[in-house]
Amino acid sequence: MEIERKVKYEAELDKNFLREIIELSHCEEIERCIQCGTCSSSCPMAIYMDYPPRKIMAMIKEGFKKEVLKSFTIWLCSSCYTCTVRCPAQIKITDVMYALKRKAIEDGVYPARFSIPVLDKEMTKIIKSTGRNWEMGVVLKLYLKTNPLGLLKMAPIGLKLMKTGRMGLKRESIKNKKQLRNLLDLVKEEVNA
Amino acid sequence: MREYTYYPGCSIKGTAKHYEESLISTFNELGIKMKELDDWNCCGATAYFSVDEKMAIAISGRNLALAQKEGRDLVAPCAGCYLTLRKSLEFLNTSPEKVGKIVKELKEIGGEFPFTIRVRHPLEILINDYGLDEIKKKIKRDLKGLRVACYYGCQVVRPFTDFDDPDYPTSLDRLMEITGAIAVNYSPKTRCCGGSLTGTVEEVGLRLNYILLKEAKKENADVIVTICPLCQFNLEMYQDRIIKKYGENIRIPVFYFTQILGIALDIPVKELGFSRSVIPLNDFWARI
């Protein structure tokens, strides 16, 4: 066992992290957090999180960038918005979680082979190329990349869907792909500029 | 009667076909006209906002611009599509400077900007535009005390709270009750089903759905009624695995609200997609 220091020194904190996340989430209110814990007590996922949302808010304010971006918390947030509608300081906590997910992907620091960011990325790839999501294709890709054996467990569900005509075997595509691509290119151009 | 543009979304063309079948037949029966948006693209759901916000808004922007050209409100039956489109619409209309160049392009496609159309959910249309009193006049079949657990999930009632209460909504309960059904007390009515977590982190996803199923059984519900394809899918398709894992009989049919309303409107059952249920419905048919 390796002995490591468990407490961070102040000099190691990233003082820009708060501004960065405010900008990415369009949510100035993070600064107003009173640490009441309404978010954590409302969150159906909190029992699985490494840091519950209240703690994440405090960590953003203090600059614990690495810990926040590497946390499972941000990926476990399923966007149910319960915390957001209840926060007395009007912090859009769900939007903050989205901003953290994007930052973690951008910096390449999300937990390796963790299925949630993989799902998100695979789905955006499919949409980008055809304009439509393809439920079966996404699920197949997700399991092959993260947990090939899991496909066996999914087989009975797949069979039932097939039997009841609820499985789209064909990959759909929009007609005007050029129009969609043009919009996405405009976004890319601007981000690069 | 007002007309709407219909945005189906990807699930409704796949795993949620019975949502589309029952939605279209009930709206037809009520005389509510919808025309499908031509060449719509996927809304991107929660995934796109997790990867790239500006691109997420651009792909939703295309749908919104195409709908703007039609000039009618956009109806999105999937909770994910509803929220994604509505969030993007608000973002585009209130902070166009944050998305830059695509605004000009979207104006060209839609013919107008800021957009004037609204994004709507079919439940909200039934309640606010059509009205429960009017629906009541068309009810032909009494559901005779069928015990219904009304499950709202997350994204139809949150974060936008102008339609119903975000913690204790009642619109679906009221709609179900005019059919003669009884909306049971269902305390987790807005507790999250976990969305795609059933597929990504099974331990979490299964437990969330176990709680939802168990609470419905506790209230002696005959069925659970949903308003979102992902909620319906999770609650129905994982029952075998949940029973195996928790060793409890939580077997219960899970329908779309439009299927139950459809029965009360006396629409032929085969037009309401009931054959797509993977849960045996013998008890249910005997009950009504």
Structure description:
The complex is a heterodimer of chains A (193) and B (288). Chain A is mainly α. Chain A folds into two domains: 10-107, Orthogonal Bundle (Fumarate Reductase Iron-sulfur Protein, Chain B, domain 2); 115-192, no CATH class. In chain A, 58% of the residues lie in helices and 0% in strands. Chain A has helices at residues 17-25, 38-42, 53-62, 65-70, 73-76, 82-86, 93-107, 115-130, 135-146, 150-163, 177-192. In chain A, helix 1 (17-25) crosses helix 7. The radius of gyration of chain A is 20 Å and the shape is globular. The termini of chain A are far apart. By secondary structure, chain B is of the alpha/beta class. Chain B folds into two domains: 3-120, Glutathione S-transferase Yfyf (Class Pi), Chain A, domain 2 (Up-down Bundle), CATH 1.20.1050.140; 139-287, Rossmann fold (3-Layer(aba) Sandwich), CATH 3.40.50.11810. In chain B, the strands form two sheets. Chain B has a four-stranded parallel beta sheet with strand order 2-1-3-4, with helices on both faces. Chain B has a four-stranded parallel beta sheet with strand order 6-5-7-8, with helices on both faces. In chain B, helix 3 packs parallel to helix 5 and helix 10 (202-218) crosses helix 12. The radius of gyration of chain B is 19 Å and the shape is globular. The two termini of chain B are 31 Å apart.
